Amino acid sequence: MGNPSIEAAIKLEKKRAERKLKELNTETNSSNPVVGFFNRAAIESLKREKERLEKVEEAFKALDLNKLKSCFGFDTFFATDVRRFGDGGIFIGNLRKPIEEVMPKLEKKLSEAAGKEVVLWFMEEKSNDIKKQVCMVQPKAEIDLQFESTKLSTPWGYVSAILLCVTTFGTIALMSGFFLKPDATFDDYISDVVPLFGGFLTILGVSEICTRITAARYGVKLSPSFLVPSNWTGCLGVINNYESLLPNKKALFDIPVARTASAYLTSLALTLIAFVSDGSFNGGENALFIRPQFFYNNPLLSFIQYVIGPYSDDLGNVLPNAVEGVGVPVDPLAFAGLLGMVVTSLNLLPCGRLEGGRIAQALFGRNVATLLSIGTSLLLGIGGLSGSVLCLAWGLFATFFRGGEELPARDEITPPGDDRYNWGFVLAVICFLTLFPNGGGTFSSSFLSQPFFRGDL
Q1: Rounded mean pLDDT of 166-190?
Q2: Has the keyword Membrane been applied to this entry (predicted)?
Q3: Cα torsion 326, 331, 333, 338: sign
Q4: CA 265, CA 257: separation in Å to the nearest integer?
Q5: pTM given for the model
C-alpha cells in the first residue's frame, strides 16, 4: 500500500463536485425564483471548481512506475524492486556510481520519461535488520506545493519578522535595565546598557550572516529570521525555516553549526575584549551589577574555577567584589557574551527543529533524532514542573512551535564525516556545561560545597 496521493485526493473532490452538481440540477426547476437563482449560482461555481480540479488533476497525475523503472540501469542505480509512494515511487536497489554523478543524470532521464520534472532522494531503509539503498522519486510540482504551503517569505512573514525584531529590541533594553544600580540615572543607563545592547546585537548579527552565507553555499533558501523575545535574557535566539530541499547531510549539519559556532566564538571574543579593555575582572567603570545566584548555578564557571582555583578573597568569599544588596560587578560587554552563550546553548538542545535537533538529525538520522527530541522535551517539562519558568517556556516553545523534523536531504546515504561528528561532540559538551543543573555551583574551598557570598546576596 502506498501513501495517499494528491491525485487520489483530487479525484475524490472531483466526484464530490459532480455529485453536488447532479443534486442541484434536479432542483433548478423549483417554482421559487429566489431558490432557483441561488441554485444556478451554485451550479456555475461548481462547474468552475470542476474545471479547476481537472486541470490540477492533469498536473498532479501519478507517475507511471513501469515506465520509470526502465530508466534505471547498471551505470546509475540498479533497481531490483519498486513500490508506490504518494504520486511517485520508491525504487529499491543499489548505487553503481557516486551519488553526485548519478543524481543529475538519472534525474534528467526520469524527467524525460515522466514528461514532467521529478525530484530524487537517495536513502537507506532497514528491513529485517538488512540495510537497503533506495531511490525515491516524486513529482517536483508536489514538493514545490508543499514548500509553498509553509512558505514564510511572504509580505506577512516579513512584517511578522520586523515586529518580532522590534519587540526583541525592547525586551533586550528592558532586561538591561534590571542590572543597574538602584540610584542609576538615564546617563548611567546609556553608558551601561548600550555596550550590552550592542554586544547582544553583534552576536545575533554575526551568527545570522554566517548562517546565510553557509546556506547560500549549499543552495538552500532560508525564510526570514524571527527573533524570539524574552524578559529573562532579552532574546532566546533566532529561528528560520528551510524553504528548499537540502542537498545532503553535510548541509543539514553545517548550516545550524554556522549559527551556533559563530555565536559562541563571538560571545567569547566580546568577553575577552571586555576583560582586556578593563584590565581586570571587576567590571570596569560602567559595570552592571548581577546577583551572584546568576553565576553559581553555571557549571561552566564552576569548571573554570576547578581548573584555575577558587575565585575568592582571603576570607573565603566567592566573587569577593560583590556589593551587598546590589550584586557582582560585570562588564556589560562580558555579560552580553555570557548571555550569548546561554541563548546559543538553549538553541543547541536536540529538540525538534531547533539547531541542535537539526544537528542530531544530520549525525544520527531521523529515528535517533526523534528519540532525543522526546527525551529533551520530557527533561524540559520536568525542569518546568520543578519551578524553572525558563525550562517550561522553552520546552513549550521547542515542542509546539519547533517540533517535528526536517525533510530528508536528497543524499541521505553519504555520511557527514568524522570531522563533523567531532565538532558535534564539542558543541554538545559546551551546551552541557552551560545549561546542565549544578547544585554545588561555584565554590570557596571544596568542590560541590555550598557557595557563600558576603552579605548573603
Answers
A1: 75
A2: yes
A3: negative
A4: 12
A5: 0.80
